[in-house]
Amino acid sequence: MRSGITYAYDSKSHWDKEKQQSRSTQHLIGRVDPVTGEIVPTDGRNRKAKAKQPVKPSQDFSHKYYGATYLLTQLAVKTGLAQDLQACFGNLTDMILSIAEYLVLELESTLCRFNHWQKPHVHPANQPIFSQQSNDLLGQITKSQITDFFRRQSKSRP
């Protein structure tokens, strides 16, 4: 008991072979509440426990490759390729450009690997194109659209 306050300690004894005597160590657990008799944890210096800093939630970051696809998209726009695709294929243009850029950049890969490739790359479609969608896309393109596209391309070339 110090200054009228009763403290609770954890005491452990052990035998010191060298000095041939018993030794004990005490660790303060806390003070005994005089009203309830319960042990209230304390650090023994009458300090309040420091408020823990709230853990900031980690931010999710993503890394996407943009350079090569940006270059190919700009080439398609500047050469008139994107405009001709838009005129012939309408709302399929971005999907066609995305798949074409994939096939140019990944020469050895097959179309079934496109789904894996598109996750870390920015591409004109700017949304996931699933395997079934790419198959449907190829089925939607008609011979007359292809003929019209090449006719437009031949007119724009010297």
UniProtKB/TrEMBL annotation:
Residues 11-21 have a biased composition (Basic and acidic residues). Residues 1-27 are annotated as: Disordered. This is Transposase, IS4 family. It comes from Lacticaseibacillus paracasei subsp. paracasei Lpp225. The lineage of its organism: Bacteria, Bacillati, Bacillota, Bacilli, Lactobacillales.
